[in-house]
Write a structure and sequence with these properties.
By secondary structure, the chain is an alpha+beta fold. It is about 45% helix and about 15% strand. The chain is elongated.
């Protein structure tokens, strides 16, 4: 009987030890580092040649395997582990030496997918709330009225947990992002747009930021990609922006294609996009890149001039009509 009791105690001790060594980890923060160029300076590509996104995972335990669209081996830098995943990856599963496996679905942290050549930071914490973290974390819950110039190369931005009302959350985030963009707070705007980067309006704004180099390194190819994604969803401003790239061409990105540009301008103009309407008015009335057709030009100038409230472009359309005698 005593032997049975001792055996039971020994097994209980082993079980307790196993449970303690097999604690669960969870995601403490999921962050994007728009100014971290690691994915560009140390790039990897997937099997199709598409450049990868880089996940920087902070955890003390050893990661033994990552399941998902992973490219190459894990780069172990101590607490910081680098994992390269292909563009549009939606989730990964981490296996550890001393902890239970952890599935991370990116949409749970406001990122439906990850984007090529972007760096994301994932900080993990254990059941006791002990977090393995990166340094210099920017918290948008703090004062974001003014986004200061970062003195650190690897400034990161904290993403809050999603709410149940995804549609309302997206709308609110977009409005905050556009306000920051219009106030030239580009770091803040980029972070907010990236939170809803599957939304066509956000994609168009992100395209503009890459096109002009606002908060990120100028990348016309990335701008073209984002404009295309937004335009494919029928977003008029993106169709107009994409048309401009086709009209003139962009070195090493896209060749000039007037037919495609006209097609996109017409799609945007039919949705009452002011810039597209004015551009069509100018092209047709002057015969620029198209056969001259004053009547067609006047039609589009009139639609542009009718926009309310008046803007610089609508007033320019009115002046153009007067110059044509209308």
């Amino acid at each position: 009987m005593n032997r049975l009791i001792l055996l039971f105690l020994a097994l209980s001790s082993l079980l307790s030890s196993s449970i303690c060594s097999g604690q669960r980890l969870k995601v403490a923060t999921f962050e994007i580092q728009p100014k971290d160029l690691s994915a560009r300076t140390d790039p990897r590509a997937d099997n199709s040649g598409q450049l990868c996104a880089l996940l920087k995972i902070y955890v003390m335990d050893k990661i033994t395997e990552v399941q998902g669209n992973v490219m190459g081996d894990i780069v172990d830098k101590g607490v910081e582990k680098w994992v390269y995943v292909s563009d549009h990856t939606k989730q990964i599963k981490l296996n550890f030496e001393k902890h239970f496996p952890l599935m991370i679905t990116f949409s749970d942290y406001d990122y439906p997918t990850v984007s090529e050549q972007m760096v994301y930071v994932i900080e993990l914490e254990d059941a006791n709330g002990v977090k393995n973290s990166a340094n210099n974390i920017y918290d948008p819950a703090e004062d974001t009225a003014t986004v200061k110039e970062s003195t650190a190369a690897n400034e990161v931005m904290t993403v809050k947990q999603p709410t149940n009302d995804a549609s309302r959350e997206t709308t609110e985030t977009l409005e905050k992002a556009k306000k920051a963009y219009n106030e030239q707070e580009y770091d803040k705007a980029f972070w907010l747009f990236m939170k809803v980067n599957m939304n066509p309006e956000a994609q168009n704004y992100l395209g503009q930021m890459y096109f002009y180099g606002y908060a990120v390194a100028q990348d016309r190819a990335k701008a073209f990609e984002l404009y295309s994604k937004s335009a494919d969803q029928g977003f008029a401003a993106a169709q107009s922006n994409l048309a401009g790239m086709y009209l003139y061409g962009e070195r090493k990105v896209v060749k000039a294609n007037v037919k495609k540009a006209l097609e996109l301008y017409h799609k945007a103009a039919e949705q009452d996009d002011l810039y597209a309407q004015y551009t069509l008015g100018w092209m047709y009335s002057t015969g620029t890149n198209v056969k001259k057709n004053v009547d067609e030009g006047v039609k589009w100038y009139r639609r542009a001039a009718a926009h309310q409230p008046p803007s610089t472009l609508s007033e320019m359309a009115q002046d153009a009509l007067k110059g044509l005698g209308y």
